[in-house]
Structure formats: structure tokens, C-alpha cells
Amino acid sequence: MGNMMEPDLPKPEPAYEPKFDPMLGFPNGRKERTVKTTKEEMESAAIPPHLRDYCIDDYMQFLKCRQDRFPFVYKCKHELHNYHNCEFEDFVLRMKEYEREARLNKLVESKQGA
């Protein structure tokens, strides 16, 4: 009695570190992705950690709209659409980065084999 078992929750994956220079192949450089929302604002709004990504600004606008128009939250469809669109664009960008890394790995392997 009294024994507590730790639940079998998956451990979070470590942050991905690219193997290649992110500026490789971009002669004019790349636009740096930034977030305007501060960590304090996220904590005060009680944003869960899994939602704290590059789309947090759009999510915060959606939450503000919901708060401003409370009984009529259906009027915040535009803000919700912006948030979902940002999430989709972030997903596409991450997939492009994954494919870029895969192509560069294949190129390195072909040069080592030749």
C-alpha cells in the first residue's frame, strides 16, 4: 500500500541539431525566425509548453480576441485561421529542412563512396 508508480509517459525528444551549416546554399543569408511574445507573457497567459512555438503570436491574438468577444467567440474565426495557417507553414518549413538535411547527407555519402 502507498506505492506510487510513475506513469509511462513518453520522454520529450531532445532538440534537433542540424549537422550542416544552416546558411549553406544561401548566399544572401536566411531570414531569422523570431517571436514577439515574451516568456513572461506566455506564463501569465498559462500557455502550455507544447504550444510555445513560432506561432505563439497568432495564438495570443486568438486568445485576446476570445477574451474581448467572449460570448461571441465565433467572431474570432479569422484569428484562429491565421494560427492554423501559421502551424501549417511551420510544418512545411520543418519538412523542407528535413528533406534538405537528407539530401545533404546523401550527397556526403556519395562523395565518400566515390
UniProtKB/TrEMBL annotation:
Belongs to the complex I NDUFB7 subunit family. Accessory subunit of the mitochondrial membrane respiratory chain NADH dehydrogenase (Complex I), that is believed not to be involved in catalysis. Complex I functions in the transfer of electrons from NADH to the respiratory chain. The immediate electron acceptor for the enzyme is believed to be ubiquinone. It comes from the Eukaryota. It comes from Argiope bruennichi (Wasp spider). PANTHER family: NADH DEHYDROGENASE [UBIQUINONE] 1 BETA SUBCOMPLEX SUBUNIT 7, NADH:UBIQUINONE OXIDOREDUCTASE B18-LIKE SUBUNIT. Residues 8-20 have a biased composition (Basic and acidic residues). InterPro entries: NDUB7. This is NADH dehydrogenase [ubiquinone] 1 beta subcomplex subunit 7. The keyword Aminoacyl-tRNA synthetase does not apply.
